[in-house]
């Protein structure tokens, strides 16, 4: 399966970081392409995007100030298929990307992604009190996977905090 290209640039408001691409994302070459994934709906319903985008428009979100990457670039069926070595290497590469591009916010899509990046075990939703990349706010949001058992309204409320932060920062 093919890797999914990052969508990164300098001056981004948010970079969304996932575990790794799904097989469907690898097949189509776009982030969050599995039809059971709620990512694009979450962005729209939380007010982060003005309309509902499709996975094949992921590159267009750079114009809105949003980028995409993963802690591991290899597509797999699930996180259990990612090796410890892939996480170790992925942590280093992700840190380098974030230090180079310096987005305003790094949004980790799932507590597990943030745990793998920081090696912390006690994590709350939302902005984190300590940043592991200087000058970059770190935010932990629920996974957008269709397997998540949290009510959609609760997930949307957490994602809305990102938009509120951006709006307040631009005033």
UniProtKB/TrEMBL annotation:
InterPro entries: MUG/TDG (IPR015637), Uracil-DNA_glycosylase-like (IPR005122), Uracil-DNA_glycosylase-like_sf (IPR036895). Residues 8-151 form the Uracil-DNA glycosylase-like domain. Its EC number is 3.2.2.-. Keywords: DNA damage, DNA repair, Glycosidase, Hydrolase. It holds the Pfam family UDG. GO terms for molecular function: hydrolase activity, acting on glycosyl bonds. This is TDG/mug DNA glycosylase family protein.
């Amino acid at each position: 399966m093919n890797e999914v290209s990052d969508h990164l640039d300098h001056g981004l408001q948010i970079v969304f970081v996932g575990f790794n691409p799904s097989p469907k994302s690898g097949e189509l070459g776009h982030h969050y392409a599995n039809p059971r994934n709620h990512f694009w709906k979450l962005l729209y319903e939380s007010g982060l995007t003005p309309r509902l985008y499709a996975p094949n428009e992921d590159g267009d979100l750079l114009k809105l100030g949003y980028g995409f990457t993963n802690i591991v670039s290899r597509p797999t069926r699930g996180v259990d298929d990612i090796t410890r070595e892939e996480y170790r290497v992925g942590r280093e590469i992700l840190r380098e990307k974030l230090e180079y591009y310096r987005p305003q916010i790094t949004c980790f899509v799932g507590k597990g992604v943030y745990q793998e990046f920081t090696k912390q075990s006690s994590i709350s939703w939302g902005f984190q009190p300590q940043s592991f990349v200087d000058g970059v706010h770190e935010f932990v949001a629920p996974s957008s996977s269709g397997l998540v058992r949290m009510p959609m309204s609760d997930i949307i409320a957490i994602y809305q905090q990102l938009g509120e932060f951006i709006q307040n920062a631009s005033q």
